[in-house]
Amino acid sequence: MSALERLAATVESRRNADPESSWTAKLLSRGPEKCAEKFGEEAVEAIIEAVRGDRERLTSEAADVLFHLLVMLAARGVTLAEVLAELERREGVSGIKEKASRPG
C-alpha cells in the first residue's frame, strides 16, 4: 500500500471521528463545499510556490494539495481507487486525444 493509499484510508477512517479532535473530521463535518473551498486554497498556495520556484515550499504545498484532494473526494463519496482506475484507463492515450473524446 502506498503512502497515498494509506492517507486515503486514514481520511475515510476519520469520517465519523470527533471534529474537535480531528482536522479531517472537522473538514468533512462542514460539508463538500467547504472541503472543495479548502482544496482550492491549497491549490492556489501550491501555484504560488511553483511560480516562486521554491522547491521545498512547493513540495510541502503539494502534500497539502494531495491531502485536501482526498478529503474533497471523500466528501463526495469518490474513492482514490476510482481516481486511480480512471488514470489507468487513460494511460497510454494521448492527452489531446483523451480530451477530444470527452462529451461536451
UniProtKB/TrEMBL annotation:
Entry GO MF terms: ATP binding; phosphoribosyl-ATP diphosphatase activity
UniProt similarity note: Belongs to the PRA-PH family.
Pathway this chain belongs to: Amino-acid biosynthesis; L-histidine biosynthesis; L-histidine from 5-phospho-alpha-D-ribose 1-diphosphate: step 2/9
Protein name: Phosphoribosyl-ATP pyrophosphatase
The organism of origin for this protein: Paracoccus solventivorans
GO BP annotation list: L-histidine biosynthetic process
Organismal lineage: Bacteria, Pseudomonadati, Pseudomonadota, Alphaproteobacteria, Rhodobacterales
Keyword Hydrolase: yes
Top enzyme category: hydrolase
